[in-house]
Amino acid sequence: MTAHLTDAGTRSDDGGTGGEPPRQSFWVARGLVPERGPRRTLALASFVRQIGNGLFMISAAIFFTRSVGLSVTQVGVGMGVAALAGLLAGIPIGHVADRRGPRRTYLVTLSVEALAMAALVLVHSFWIFVLVIALTQVAASSSEAARGPLIRGFAGPDPVRYRSYLRAIGNLAGGTSAIAAGVAVQMDTRAAYLALVLGNALSFAVSAAVVLRLPTLPPVQAPPDSDRWIALKDAPFVLVTVLDGIMSIQGYVLVFALPLWIVDHSHAPRWLVGASAVLNTGLVVLLQVRASRGIDTTSAAGRAMRRAGVVFLVGMVLIAVTAGMPGWLAAVLIVTGVVVHTFGELWVSAASFELNFSLAPAHAQGQYSGLFGLGPGFASAGAPSVLGLLCITWGAPGWLVMGAVFLLAGLAMPLVVRWAERTRPIYHVLGEA
Questions:
Q1: Domain covering 3-7+33-211, topology
Q2: Given CB 3.0 to 4.6 Å as the disulfide criterion, which of 41, 68, 156, 406 pairs with 312?
């Protein structure tokens, strides 16, 4: 990276005039808030945007069925088409961010997200719904791809810690969204659902306004002989993306499979559905930064994925054996399984960030981020069907099969990472400094 990027990411509060550095506040000193500057600004923009994403994810299906009047089948088909459109957009928009500058590209995608989300209030037919929801997903995927170079450029001297911080505040934003969405669902009126949708659109607009405060981040010059679509031709990185996508299915175990299991296949109390979600979110917010320590190289990320595969299997076993158990014992084992699973989630998150950024050359970070986003994207599209078949239809054996899949993916990751390390081009090995 150029000296300009480093300076932008580590600018001091005293304006660069020298002398004794300013005293840190309690929140900064404890790592609860980044120091004043681009990192704090980008974190704030990310937090606001994640609130909007959380509102949409939690309430979308209910809004379209109960307020717009679409059938469950229509909503499923439309959101499937939208997800596919979003997956196809990440790589080309990431390439645009690499070549034109990520800040400008991110502003455009956030603005499109805001407009598309606001347009949902005008949807009254299936085909208009498909068109608008596809636009929202294209903009969302594009935003993630453009955000990658921004995070890399402003991460500063401890990028692992900063990326973990972004993950933690993302979960905090998700918890905040859940409360607001829960109130709207309880009210169950069109006005309440419209308020959610417009609040979501507003969050993207506010996030864009915050991004305007970021300094310009110029694109990194590509080497003269670099390939235009380098990420797509990077075979080991593609395989890393596939394995990361398999591991990403874990994100739906606690929010999709576990609630259905508690209600339909165990004698555990139903309030455990909400309690498990709160426990998981709280642990991620509190422990994500700490759990990411030491996951600061690609080899360390591979080993973290391997550990995660092991603990996912343990967590799945703990949940699977609760079928037919007394309620209190099932509750104890399920809570234990949630805690174990969450530690795997913490390691996967930190490792995914590290692999996404450390295996990508700086001049193509947006393109690589767009490709890497395909893994979680396909997981999002396929996880409900896979988990529904294995964990709910098959029952306890299905939980064990899914745990074995996580284990095998985790065990394979260090091998693929070593292959990727051996095939990095020389300009990346030297850090493109």
A1: Growth Hormone; Chain: A; (1.20.1250)
A2: 406
In CATH terms, the superfamily for domain 235-424 is MFS general substrate transporter like domains (1.20.1250.20)
Closest Cα partner for 354 from 163, 177, 186, 210? Answer: 163
Distance CA(333)–CA(367), nearest Å, equals: 42
**How is 53-73 classified by DSSP, letter by letter?**
HHHHHHHHHHIIIIII---HH
Q: Which residue has the tokens 């069907």?
A: 385
User: Tens digit of pLDDT for each residue in 234-284?
Assistant: 999 999 999 999 999 998 898 888 988 998 889 999 888 878 888 988 898
d(CA 144, CA 29): 29
Nearest to 219 by CA among 358, 95, 111: 95
Is 145 within 8 Å of 94 (Cβ atoms)?
A: yes
* CB 101, CB 120: distance < 8 Å: no
Q: How far apart are CA 271 and CA 392, in angstroms?
A: 19
Other C-beta atoms closer than 10 Å to the C-beta of 381 total: 16
User: Where in the chain are all domains bearing CATH 1.20.1250.20?
Assistant: 3-7+33-211, 235-424
Cα 335 from Cα 189, distance rounded (Å):
34
User: Residue 77: what residue type?
Assistant: V
pTM of the entire structure? 0.77
